[in-house]
Predict the 3D structure of the following.
Amino acid sequence: MALKHEKSNALWQKAKEVIPLGVSSSFRFHGPKNTYYVARAKGAYYWDVDGNRYIDYSLAWGPVILGHAYDEVDNYVHEQIKLRGTTTALTTDLEIEVAEKFVAMCPCVEKVRLVNSGTEATMHSLRLARGYTGRDKYIKFEGAYHGVHDYVLYSMYANPMPVYGSRRSPIPVPESSGIPKVINDTVITVPYNDCEALDLALKRSGHEVAAILVEPVLGNCVAIGPEPGFLQFLRQKCDEYGIVLIFDEVKTGFHLAVGGAQEYYGVTPDLATYAKAIGNGYPAAAFGGKKELMDMIAVGQVEIDGTYCGNVVSVAAMNATLGIIQREPVLETIFKRGRRLQEGLRSIFEENGIPAFVTEHPAMFGIILAEKMPRDQREWELTDKATYQKIVLAAHERGISKHEVIREPYFLSYSHSEADIDETLNVMADVVHEVKLGRI
Ligand SMILES: Cc1ncc(COP(=O)(O)O)c(C=O)c1O
């Protein structure tokens, strides 16, 4: 039975008069009838303004790793604001504490700068790589998302078939009006997991390339993971051509391992970007890496600034969240529950005779309806996305919420209980069966 959304629908009518699309980030817009407004969130749940309760597997696209309104983090943030205010034009000792945590946790990080969003982190990292190498171009993988600055809004979710060109010479597709045309010449796009295409691109332009920017797992394309040897190949080619290897760990950071994807896959980049899970939902972000690179950040060298960089709210949230991740079995708990959910989902699809893949990581995984596992966005576009979209929407109407955009993975938090997993599997079993019978 469909949930009621009357209050959300009325709020959308009001919001659209004063906010474009009625939302502050366009990814929150799902049409006039499906754009919902939230009233409350706690632990693994949120409640919309119509009073519907959902088990949340979107967790704000990943950040809420401990659970919504997590008392220990919130109390610490409040305490620090009362003591220090929210921001001054000076640095606090808290920033040093947080930086030390990054250095201890992340294999590539010898020095780190604290910023406010993943967009800032990737933008600054690219500038740093360009400043370091004296080169302008960079390589981006199709289907990856790195934020909303002009350099990275390319070949993310366009339908690749008509516009991405051949694998041998991909066409970088800007995903927005307003990006200066000159930027096209600085972006080289390559299909993910395609060593041959990458090799070819490097043979043509390797000595003009400042950076290879990669989501180690395609967190913005159903969490398709790297094939064995792919990340190692990137490391090897970056060394060969003097290119800076940047892992965008905004989604993988602290979901895959305490040291992120670089620890999980045993490949150390030169720079890495972080956001989301490092602050449990507060606007916290960072980028860091080798001293040699990071020490180029200096007045008159590579310029990295920001009024709110290092603000007390974000830094306190990072300090508390990272402290809890270091101290408590956060990831172990998430992995245990996530594996149960993944195995349960695999069985549900199998029992219904629907060929499906549930991707690898229990803390962050996608579902792909296909006979053969896709290795990149081009192949994923050919899978049964329409049926999967039906499943996601029907589950939402029964209280299991994952972001409606099906590229987005399921995320789990420390607050998801065994009972939440049971409830989710019961709902998913019903939904998948009804889809199979053609009732949805
Ligand atoms: C891998 C990745 N990088 C960068 C970003 C941009 O982060 P933000 O939305 O904090 O600017 C995102 C956001 O979803 C992301 O998934």
Residues 169 and 201 are 8 Å apart (CA to CA).
